[in-house]
Amino acid sequence: MTKQFRRGLTLFSILVLFTFTLTACSDGKNDVVRVAEVTRSIFYAPQYVALSEGMFEDEGIEVELTTTWGGDKTMTTLLSDGADIALVGSETSIYVYAQGTKDPVINFAQLTQTDGTFLVARDKVENFSWEQLKGSTFLGQRKGGMPQMVGEYVLKNKGIDPQEDLNLIQNIDFANIGNAFASGTGEFVQLFEPTASLFEQQGVGHIVASFGKESGKVPYTVFMAKESYLKENADVAERFTKALYKAQQWVDTHSAAEIAKSIQPFFKDTELELIETVVDRYKSQNTYATNPILDEEEWNNLQDIMEEAGELPKRVEHKKLVNTKMAKEVQE
């Protein structure tokens, strides 16, 4: 073996080792990110698109998705390090901050920008007006939750005092509100999809208005993480946000039928046609944010709604609990 050959072999070995090291580092970027979602909902379509279309994988991220069923449980999971990132309403970050914490929960990527509930009437209503609710039995959402706060905010803006002008029922568990209405309770009900559209298909009720359209833009559902996690995993969080942005753009530029087909694996018990109907309804009212930026106007609108409902512990500056740096950078 000649000296020149040995030198060449050594250089080749170094090159192979370097290439292997780069590959290993690349593989190492398939970071596991544990995400706790507050519920499983077509309302969160861009998240499921990012998963089904491989957008997180393209950014070297493996998402472990867990449904935690409720804002309190979701935030508890995040605070106890049972999840890295939570998908939940922004109001929860304000509640945590108000209680006092050295490691606040930071909103860094917005998913939905309107309320996701609809007003459903038992009987078909011609030429609906909000005045028709006065004196009726109204089956509302649980007190203190974002749906209830938005619902009452809209009612008040329409000149209706929920406590005085309605027979307001709010003592039914979230999961049973639809069943209660279907069994005969209430003349009007505030419902999420796909229950609202399903009831319309079945003739149980009729959608007459959208709380999302009436309340304006609000950071209804946002990806958030503890401040310490974002500092220690800035690159991961930015790649996560980039994948989400790709999914938001995909949803914005694809039809409801294409989106429904993409996310159907996450809703195996729901007919594809119904998923498409729901997606189309949300797209038509711009419920899905087209970028992950949670701006100051939306943040203030959220706090106005909470304050009106008597649920805002104190006003918090946008810059205290919102990080838009990554969301802005991924659009460049």
Automatic annotation (TrEMBL):
GO CC annotation, single: periplasmic space
One Pfam family per UniProt: NMT1_2
Organism domain of life: Bacteria
Cellular compartments annotated: Periplasm
Gene3D superfamilies in the cross-refs: Periplasmic binding protein-like II
Keywords of the record: Signal
Primary localisation category: periplasm
SUPFAM superfamilies: Periplasmic binding protein-like II
Signal peptide: 1-24
Family: Belongs to the bacterial solute-binding protein SsuA/TauA family.
Protein name: ABC transporter substrate-binding protein
